Amino acid sequence: MYTENKNLKLPGNPDTIIWKYLDLSKFLDLLLSKKMFMSRSDKFEDQYEGTFSEPTYEEIKQIAVNNPEFLNYYKQRRKNIVISSWHINEYESFAMWQIFTKNNEGLAIQSTVGRLKEAFHAEDRITQYIGEVDYIDYKKEYIPFDDDFFPFLFKRKSFQYEKEIRVISDVTPLNLSVNEGIKIQTDIQKLIEKIYIHPKSENWYKKLVIELMDKLEFNFSVEKSDLESDILI
Questions:
Q1: What is the DSSP letter of 174?
Q2: Cα–Cα–Cα angle for 88, 94, 97, nearest 5°?
Q3: Which end of the chain is more exposed for a tag (fewer CB within 10 A), N or C?
Q4: Is the pLDDT of residue 231 over 60?
């Protein structure tokens, strides 16, 4: 169930376009399970995920002098926070295709912030929040820690190209051990607005994606990426 957290920054327009770039196997898993995968925060490639900038860490160390469990709490929390990352952009991103897909056979889900909010089931055991990521200088800038999600909604400036918005949840109340992540019930029809096929893919690949969706009784609009359209001279 999506719940608003007023501490988390979000685009004001619910029609703000967002994207998820992924390979065919992950897309099929989404359709078959009707569940969205959320990764454990400390399993991301960026080792700084869920950590603090240097000015904030210095303050936390001072607090932890008389309360050592304070720092341990934040370390443990990285194992209990799960995240699904999306890319904010009005248009396709060449960089995102390059980073998140391989072998010219990936695809991209186009959605909106409003659709993302509506896609989660009210009866889910954990609450989903949505927040936009801030990109800062970790050597100079301060990350507030008055909201437990803040460490997971700041990243280094070198990741600004990601323009990331995150679905974020805390699985602590479930009292379970999370390995790589968890899957949450998702209304796929509400979530997906359109599917884009990798710009360098062959025609057979688009046909395959359409056939697979037909067999699974989904009828999303499928388009070839605009990035490899015919050159007009």
A1: G
A2: 85
A3: C
A4: no
